[in-house]
Amino acid sequence: MSGAKGNLAVGQSGGPTVAINSSLCGVIQEARSHDEIGEIYGMVHGIEGLLKDRFIDLRRHPVEVIEGVRKTPSAALGTARYKVTPDDYERILEVLKLRNIRYIHYIGGNDSADTSLRLRKLASDAGYELHVIAVPKTVDNDLCVTDHCPGYPSAARFVTMAIRDTGRDTEAMGHYGPLKLLEIMGRNAGWLTAAAALAREEEGDAPHLVYLPERPVSIEQLVEDVKNCYEERGRVVIAMSEGAQEAPGKTFGEDYAPVDMDAFGHRMKGGVGEFVVALLRDRLGIKVRMDKPNYLQRSMMICASPVDLEEAYRVGREAVREAAAGRMEGMITLVRDPGPGYHCSLGVAALEEIANKEKKLPAEFMNEAGNYPTEAFLSYARPLIGGPLPPYTRLSKQFV
Amino acid sequence: MSGAKGNLAVGQSGGPTVAINSSLCGVIQEARSHDEIGEIYGMVHGIEGLLKDRFIDLRRHPVEVIEGVRKTPSAALGTARYKVTPDDYERILEVLKLRNIRYIHYIGGNDSADTSLRLRKLASDAGYELHVIAVPKTVDNDLCVTDHCPGYPSAARFVTMAIRDTGRDTEAMGHYGPLKLLEIMGRNAGWLTAAAALAREEEGDAPHLVYLPERPVSIEQLVEDVKNCYEERGRVVIAMSEGAQEAPGKTFGEDYAPVDMDAFGHRMKGGVGEFVVALLRDRLGIKVRMDKPNYLQRSMMICASPVDLEEAYRVGREAVREAAAGRMEGMITLVRDPGPGYHCSLGVAALEEIANKEKKLPAEFMNEAGNYPTEAFLSYARPLIGGPLPPYTRLSKQFV
Questions:
Q1: pTM here?
Q2: Cβ neighbourhood burial of B340 (10 Å; 0-12, 13-18, 19+)
Q3: What does pLDDT average to over chain B?
């Protein structure tokens, strides 16, 4: 294109979410309105696509296809978990020059920000002009600087709905199934697990106990918590992070995983959920039912938060605007306005502040006992899932 | 109430669903319009509530609460899995007389139909006039006579959405996560697992393989199927019933469950899903990711089929109409009209035809290889989930 300064490449990285295609759509639609941007290339499977010179031409896709992608979960370009090393730098530079790529927007989390940072540095070292503005995305919500990460609110909405509905199921089962555990994504950060608490509308509602990696709780304490809760109300619904810990750095059940326990002579370690189910059955003599929705947490479009989809789109657009305006590097951030009401403005953080760093749930977001999020967390998270859930009701508990 | 012939008791039984409260609401709303029906009692936790004389007064609940219950998942009255025995008959008759209950509507599956049948017989033997018209409900869809069971279409819609969305997730992951297994409810009947196939819209879409109890497949065949599919397209999404079999009557992995494998010296048997994950890793050397949504399949209201909610409401109303019109026993059935278009009329089956019987997926609903439902099944199931899912799209796969 005449007048264009160079071409743009956009890629998706890490775990897909229901919102990452909204960001992709934001990048494409904004790019189309800038004369300095020539071709719009989609990196197929992220940085791997760049290394292999595998791009698709996003400018040639009809507007309605791009709009359709916005309503489609998962990563339309394909994603990657590849970590670039200095051995790749020469090849990367070769492809950047071959395709005259001057703008790169990599949509992802901390690892992807590391990739962006490396791209920026190798280009800078080679004297090759390259704008690298990353777009945040992760259901883990563990990126620094930004108020929250696109992808998180929708996964949080899934978790909220799941615990609310499976909680009603447990309530109806009475003594036929009084204990339930929902295992929730998040190996190192408990943001998603904490969101389970958004499901509670009335005293006694699920979840009753919430455990996550940042706040270790001893096995004895966990059993005691569940026992007390069970004796008090006859049922317990537990939201448990897949990375919940019994001591700092020590995931529940790590020591207990037997060796060679699977059918084929492999060491097979159950997750935290499986361990806690076995633990509680052993100590309390009660079967615990478990839901482990796993990848459904990040992929079920029907649970998407409208706030999330909109913000994901905005950060995508903003990344292109910043690059077109001359910024050389950074990641777009969400900056929560003081209120009243919920609104986020957009900002930019240096890639150095994001790459390979993790934002854990702050201490004040969990109660002293380490078994439930605080009101401070709920105030933070409530607006993100996009308004109240459809109302449910209960019959009176008064007997004739 | 003057002029009333007697009171009505309604109960919910077995596993909750998102539609069972619609049936409850149908029973209540219809009962309110019949002069011969006096009080409307809700049995708290099904037959247990009757045995314990624990009822709530549903006539005294405001109309908007009953309407609210209709939009609430799970069983608002509480459910039960109690099997009545002759030892209970005297007590049951005592409570029926005490409360002057002349109409019983028990909402549930085959076991609940057995309870209804026993109630009917004990009343008949005692010369106590009692109308027992059961209301069908089960996500397993395994009741005889009826075209399908309320509760099934919504769970089927959940499964369809889940496999479609987790399938997109798998597609985006490429070689970072090419194998996925969704474990689906149904120990003896594969109706719910088969519904996964409704997710496929284009050639190559998930699911790629579907296994269920009615159609055993040897371990060698399963491995071969997955291997072939993986070699062909680089990814495989498997829908697997929790009761899938390797030989008639033999669930996958039954023989392989090691003894004393859990942390506490208990025999702990993983489910079919865990076994197949270990099997495929062993034989193909590839990690298989698993989603096990378990109780979410029957409880997530956001996935409810509108067709299901409406039909569940209709069968509830019809049960009361039949009883008020003088019918002494039976279960309401859905009778599919010949078409064109989808519509069900209502019928009644004798309780004997339903109680303790199971309707398995017929042979013609699975392909010859036993690894995918046929078009005949899809035609049967497609209208139930309530219209097409929100459209998704894909980018072109043509490289620049």
A1: 0.97
A2: exposed
A3: 95
